[in-house]
Amino acid sequence: MPETAAFFKIINAGGAQDRLVGVTSSDVTEGISLGSHRMTAGGAAYRWPTESLSIPAGGTLDMSPHSSDVTVPAAARWAEGDLVPFTLHFEHSGRMEVLAVVVRPGS
């Protein structure tokens, strides 16, 4: 099954560091993973899976193709503009329900 990436901007307004430790979705039964990205000197990007992503106290985790993402098996039924529900699971803050908007790659 083809994969796609979901990107979230997470703001930690608290006074202590937290970690995003998992992501689930009622629209995706399995295969969701967290990943970090690095650019090579030649301009190519590579991704590797990670168990968690840190959000500093009073800081932001701003996912992008150049930093980190949530990799998701792409559902054939998703169309541009659809809302996909996700639950973000944090080490200290518990769960947060969010929606991601389906966009065309590169937009």
From TrEMBL:
This is Copper(I)-binding protein. It comes from Streptomyces griseoloalbus.
